[in-house]
């Protein structure tokens, strides 16, 4: 699926958000952004303190986001990082385009979990298996779920510990 975002010029950027904090629900997102900026990713220190870091636009560079489903399939190795878009004072609109590698809409008949090849006694499953595509995709803010709007870890219900 492809989506393009248009963020108009905003006279009071501190009073609103381009996109609220969320994680992408699918496998991977490939994002092209123009040179305006505004995308931020949440970084959490080893001591648990977290803060937002600008993903500064680089000419010709694509941003690759790991999604929730890849975090599940990789048994928590690759993290689906929370991100958001803030508005800024530049008097130019911002445009970004994203390609989402999402599972097909096959209802509840396909289930995901950590890949069996990755599981061993040294690497036990950290996330529950048997999650349906519907559950994954409906947790996203794109489908009417709240995404990570409340700042929570989207995968908490799946965690084994
Ligand atoms: O516009 C951006 O830079 C980010 C868009 C985004 O996070 C998304 O489409 O999921
Ligand atoms: Fe996103």
Automatic annotation (TrEMBL):
Pfam family, one: 2OG-FeII_Oxy
Superkingdom of source: Eukaryota
Region (Disordered): 142-161
Recorded GO MF terms: metal ion binding
Keywords recorded for this protein, A-Z: Iron, Metal-binding
Matches recorded under InterPro entries: IPNS-like_FE2OG_OXY, IPNS-like_sf, Oxoglu/Fe-dep_dioxygenase_dom, Plant_2OG-oxidoreductases
Fe2OG dioxygenase domain segment(s): 1-103
Protein name (Swiss-Prot/TrEMBL): Fe2OG dioxygenase domain-containing protein
Organism listed in the record: Oryza brachyantha (malo sina)
């Amino acid at each position: 699926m492809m989506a393009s975002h248009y963020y108009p010029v905003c006279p009071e950027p501190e009073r609103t958000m381009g996109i609220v904090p969320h994680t992408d629900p699918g496998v991977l997102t490939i994002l092209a952004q123009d040179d305006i900026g505004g995308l931020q990713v949440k970084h959490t220190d080893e001591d648990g303190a977290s803060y937002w870091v600008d993903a500064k636009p680089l000419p010709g560079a694509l941003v690759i986001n790991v999604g929730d489903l890849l975090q599940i399939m990789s048994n928590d190795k690759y993290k689906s990082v929370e991100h958001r878009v803030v508005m800024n004072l530049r008097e130019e609109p911002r445009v970004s385009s994203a390609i989402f590698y999402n599972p097909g809409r096959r209802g509840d008949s396909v289930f995901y979990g950590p890949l069996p090849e990755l599981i061993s006694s040294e690497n036990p499953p950290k996330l529950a298996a048997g999650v349906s595509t519907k559950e994954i995709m409906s947790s996203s803010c794109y489908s009417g779920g709240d995404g990570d709007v409340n700042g929570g870890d989207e995968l908490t219900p799946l965690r084994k510990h």
